[in-house]
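Dear colleagues,

As part of the handover before I leave the project, I'm documenting each prediction I ran so the next person doesn't have to rerun anything. This entry is a single chain, and its sequence is reproduced below.
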Amino acid sequence: MTHIATKAMQVQQTSSTTSAATPATTAAAYDPNLLLDALMHHLGIDSDGALSRRLKVARDVIRSIRQGTMPVCASMLMWMQEATGIGIDELRRIMGDRRGKCRLGFSIQPRLRTA
């Protein structure tokens, strides 16, 4: 387990308010806030504004992800990987995303050739 994943689990365990939750059940929960907090710790920054500047996204995007109104899409994971050097698989694991594949929210259609 990497340092960032260990820190993410520590943050999640301390922020959990239910006494019935065990580390095994909380580690698997999907939580984008945990990923954002772990990135901030890894990059040594202390605000969502600084994180948005580092990831080169609008501050509203980070706020929407924290509020749960916007998912962490594949392109966002790529920007996070570029900014931190952490692999996409590791970022998804920290967030608790256990899906087999991560797909883009759009598809690139081939151009139709006209004669």
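The helical segments are 3-15, 23-27, 32-43, 48-55, 59-67, 74-84, 88-95. The first helix runs from residue 3 to 15.

All the best with the project,
I.
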